[in-house]
Design goal:
Blueprint (H helix, E strand, L loop, with lengths): L1 H12 L7 E5 L6 H15 L7 E5 L6 H9 L6 E5 L2 H9 L9 E9 L2 E5 L7 H10 L4 E6 L4 H13 L3 E6 L2 H9 L5 E4 L5 H5 L3 E6 L34 E7 L5 H15 L2 H9 L3 E5 L1 H22 L4
Parallel strand pairs: 1-2, 1-3, 6-7
Antiparallel strand pairs: 3-10, 4-10, 4-11, 5-8, 5-9
Helix pairs in contact: 4-11
Length: about 325
């Protein structure tokens, strides 16, 4: 009996992919999710963490819905995983997409992505209060750009409006990179972009970081601009704007997989997050370190989903 149990345990622990693994990115090439997927692909290859190759596939159709539905439809396929974000809630809530994260298999959260309130440097605002006062003085005359409609950037914009009484004209773009370019050109006055999607413009002096939508400052102290590090950006709450929003970066696999198959990818991602290359990637892109799996992860997803339902309902984004 004991020997049989031991054999089962060893068999379970020994599972590994027998063919190439597909890593689905439900967004376009070059975006933050795609950058993360390809960075992890590079780390796995460099450190020989898998015997089989990991192949990144972009499935960005229908604002990310294509990738989510692909994972849902691949029940039992342990050779397919997806890197996702808060879109696992926002897309179904906004579009009635027939997708629920409970129907697939969560592997792990590997980081939380932050959002910064950016303005064009030439505008000369000293802080967020000065900027918000200017917006209030000219209702809906200020354009806030962001990634898509009824997603994270749009949600943050409505949260700012609710807290301050300011009104923006929200302009949706295909991605954070495009929104950053539009801000540099003065076509919009502000955007709530991820740090990684505006870092080059900040370094070039085109963008000014007013505050970060987080409880704590970004910890990284290496200078990005001539005189500023990520840690120099105050939190919005410090500046009198009590708005917080962080976006999970999570890996999922199809439903109907075996526990030992799920555990293989948990262990794989844990190894990835322990490498110096991953830690350097987090610092470069101002990502918040986080590794969460198992029951803790499921509890987090339940609470985070409810938070998104509340925000999106109050904003009138749900169908």
């Amino acid at each position: 009996m004991f020997i049989a149990a031991m054999g089962t345990a060893l068999s379970a622990a020994a599972w590994e992919p027998t063919k190439p693994v597909e890593l689905v990115v439900p967004f376009s090439a070059g975006g933050a999710s795609d950058q993360m997927a390809r960075n992890i692909q590079g780390i796995i290859t460099k450190h020989n963490l898998m015997k089989q190759p990991l192949i990144v596939q972009n499935k960005a159709g229908a604002n990310g819905a294509e990738g989510l539905l692909d994972i849902k439809a691949s029940k039992g396929d342990a050779h397919k995983i997806i890197v996702a974000s808060s879109s696992i809630y926002t897309t179904p809530l906004a579009t009635k997409l027939p997708f629920n994260w409970r129907e697939v298999t969560p592997i792990a959260i590997v980081a939380q992505d932050l959002f910064v309130l950016w303005v064009n440097s030439q505008a000369g605002y000293k802080n967020q209060k000065e900027f918000i006062d200017a917006v209030k003085a000219k209702p809906e005359g200020f354009k806030m750009g962001g990634t898509s409609s009824k997603r994270e950037d749009h949600m943050i914009t409505t949260m700012i409006e609710k807290k301050t009484g300011a009104k923006f004209l929200y302009i949706p773009y295909k991605g954070g990179g495009e929104a950053a370019t539009q801000l540099s050109g003065g076509h919009i006055q502000s955007n709530p972009n991820n740090p990684s999607e505006s870092i080059s413009q900040w370094r070039a002096g085109e963008h000014q970081a007013l505050c970060v939508f987080s409880d704590t400052r970004i910890p990284y102290k290496e200078k990005i601009t001539k005189d500023k590090a990520w840690s120099d950006i105050p939190t919005c709450k410090e500046e009198g704007l009590d708005v917080k929003y962080e976006m999970l970066r999570i890996f999922l696999m199809p439903g109907g997989v075996k526990p030992e198959q799920q555990q293989y990818y948990v262990d794989l991602l844990k190894k990835v997050t322990e490498t110096p290359e991953w830690k350097s990637y987090l610092e470069k892109n101002a990502l918040k370190p986080e590794f969460m799996t198992g029951d803790e992860l499921k509890g987090f997803l339940e609470k985070d989903e409810q938070l998104h339902k509340t925000i999106m309902t109050e904003a009138g984004f749900t169908k």
